[in-house]
Structures are given as C-alpha cells and as structure tokens.
Design goal:
Blueprint: H1 4-11, E1 21-22, E2 25-26, E3 41-45, H2 49-60, H3 66-79, E4 100-106, E5 111-117, H4 123-133, E6 138-140, H5 141-150, H6 161-171, H7 183-186, E7 207-212, E8 218-224, E9 245-248, E10 252-258, H8 260-265, H9 268-277, H10 282-296, E11 306-312, E12 317-321, E13 327-332, E14 338-341, E15 343-344
Bound molecules: N-hydroxy-L-asparagine (SD4).
C-alpha cells in the first residue's frame, strides 16, 4: 500500500516509461523526444485522447494551425455520449444539471474560458469565442450561456438518459463525496470509462490537449464536465488559465487532469511551464509539480489523483501523476494511435 517505503520506491522509478497496450497495439518507441523542424505533434490526456488526437491531426498533418487543431480535437470527447466527464453525456451536478468548464490558449498569451456553462455541446468553441470576440478571459454560468446564444450556438439538453440514470442511482444514497480518477481501480480494463469509484461513478475523463504545428506554433485546450455530483456552482481547474491549462510560446504548454482543487491551489499548469522555463524537461517539470501537491497534502494525496501532461517548444513530451493509471495519447507523423502510461508517485492503488 501507500506507506512511506512504497512512496519512496515509486518516487525512485526510472525515467523510461514502460509501454502500454492500446486496442491490441503497442507503442514501441520511447517517450516522445524533440521533433525535427517543420513537423507537428499533438498529445492529450487519457487513452480516449487517441480519437481526439486523430481529429486534431486531420488539421495538423496537412500543415494547419495548432489552435484550430486543439479546438477540433477536443470536440470529439465533448460529443462522445459514452464519455461521462466531458461535454454531452457528462454526469450532472448533485442537483441534476450538466455544467461544463473549458479553456483554450495560444502561444501568444491569448486565452478564453467558460465555466459552469449549461446546454451547449461544445464549451471549447465558446471559450475560443470568448478569446477572440470579447476583451475578457472567462465567462461563467448564465452570462456564458447568454454569450454563446448570441454567438449562434444552439441550446440542447446535455443530460443523456444514461447519465440521468446514474444520477438517480447516486441519489439513493446522495453521499456527498465527489471524487475523481477511479482508474486506479480500473487500470487496464475499462478503456478509459471508469466505474465503481467511491461516491458511485467513474468521472476521470477530462481532456487536456497540447499541440505544436509545423510552423512551431503551440496551443492548448482543456474541457470537462468536472466532478460527478459536484455542488451546484463548483468550478474546477480546467477553465482556470494557469491551473488546468497554460501555454507560453517561448517555453511550452501544460495541462492537468484530476482533482481540480489541488491543481488550482498550486497554479499547476503555470508551475509546470515555469519549471520548463528554468530548464527542466517536460517530464521533470510535471514530476516536480506533482510532488509539490503531495508534499503539501501528504495524507490527502493518498486518495486523490492529479496528473500533468506537458510539451515544450521542441515538441518533447512528459507526464507525471500522483496515482498509477494516468495515461496520455501521442500523435505525430510517425504514428497516430500511441498511448503511454505516466509514471506516478504511488505505484499502487489506494483502494
Ligand atoms: C475538475 N480536473 O473539474 C477536473 C476533473 C478531471 O479527470 O480532470 N477529471 O476538477
């Protein structure tokens, strides 16, 4: 279990990540290193990032812009009804409302975000409109919806029958313990759709995506329905620039998944980028940011998950998580369906 010995042992694991099977295939290469000039790459959190990456690659491959690629890429899980933590089909809050958070950022510090947005399938596209068509960075709740409607987005019910049934099941006990990332229980079995978590449902599927295009431009996007059964009005890290997402064209980008409160407390993605600015590799920077959370929250960290994913301006990629089970998908000219396991502080599940 997660005693000091296993903590130390897990912390001392080497830098070379093992390979992970995905759809019967194996990513046989090493953790992605620097790109040669004029080539592109996109990475995203979790194994379902493969499909999102491929949509992004349809733009990046022919030489398109990173910003367009990340927006189109994360729209895939936003529309995936089987993904219960992003977009349509996401699990609702404890009062039955599906509320969505999203952010987008380019290499020049342009950024936009929405939080607690309801009834709009693609919050990432509303976030981009906030970035490009308002002088603001973040719109929330009713105001964000009003803006989306004014921009021509169509309203629709995002609560699917499956998500509603899961909510009704949760209501039987209504035990308020919103927790995240049960992949520590489901690792290797569920293909990203977790089940059986404390509190009654899996909800670890936030997507954070980082891309670099053939012209060397970086961009990132992050989108989620947040914690299942959360308090109405709760907002996580995903729409907070510097927490769930940060991009700096001179350095690189970072994104996060997991318990948003812990990421916000540590300005997580900003920290990862600043550590890269100081010379750390993406892997080292993600690891240091995770260890800061664990150091501050030694006891709590045994039962929560946070994972960071980073890419520097050379296209090098790294990731690190508190718990075992965090994966990330990588797509470039070499192959488009790779999934790699992140290293973690704790080598074993807390459950
Ligand atoms: C949040 N960070 O709302 C999101 C949830 C998440 O993997 O990433 N789940 O706190």
């Amino acid at each position: 279990m997660t005693d000091r010995r296993s903590f130390l042992k897990a912390s001392l694991l080497g830098a070379a990540a093992p390979v992970l099977a995905w759809s019967g295939k194996l990513f046989a290469g090493p953790v992605p290193g620097a790109l040669s000039t004029g080539t592109a790459r996109v990475v995203s959190t979790w194994d379902f990032g493969v499909a999102a990456n491929q949509a992004a690659w349809a733009i990046l491959g022919p030489g398109g812009r990173a910003l367009d690629a990340v927006e189109k890429g994360v729209q895939v899980p936003e529309s995936d009804l089987k993904n219960h933590s992003v977009g349509k089909g996401g699990y609702p809050d404890r009062d039955g409302h599906v509320t969505l958070d999203a952010s987008i950022m380019d290499a020049d510090g342009n950024c936009g975000a929405v939080a607690a947005l309801e009834n709009i399938e693609h919050p990432i596209s509303v976030a981009r409109r906030v970035m490009e068509r308002t002088p603001h960075v973040l719109l929330v709740g009713a105001g964000a919806l009003q803006f989306a409607i004014a921009q021509g987005f169509k309203q629709q019910n995002l609560l699917t029958p499956e998500a509603e049934a899961a909510w009704h099941e949760w209501l039987k006990t209504a035990h308020y313990q919103p927790s995240i990332n049960s992949e520590v229980r489901d690792y290797g079995k569920s293909g990203g759709q977790a089940t059986g978590m404390p509190g009654g449902a899996g909800n670890h599927d936030t997507i954070g995506m980082l891309a670099i295009d053939a012209q060397g431009r970086l961009a990132g996007a992050c989108t989620t329905s947040g914690m299942a059964w959360k308090m109405r009005g709760r907002v996580g890290d995903s729409p907070i620039i510097g927490a769930g997402l940060y991009v700096d064209g001179e350095v690189g980008g970072a994104t996060s998944t997991g318990v948003g409160e812990e990421v916000i407390r540590n300005a997580g993605s900003f920290l990862v980028v600043e550590l890269m600015r100081q010379g750390r590799s993406p892997h080292e920077a993600c690891k240091e940011a995770v260890l800061r959370i664990v150091k501050r929250r030694r006891e709590a960290s045994k039962t929560i998950q946070v994972g960071f994913l980073a890419m520097n301006r050379a296209g090098e990629v790294g990731a690190y998580a508190i718990q075992r089970g965090f994966t990330y998908a990588v797509c470039d000219a070499r192959r488009q369906d790779a999934v790699l396991p992140s290293e973690s502080v704790y080598a074993t599940s807390y459950s």
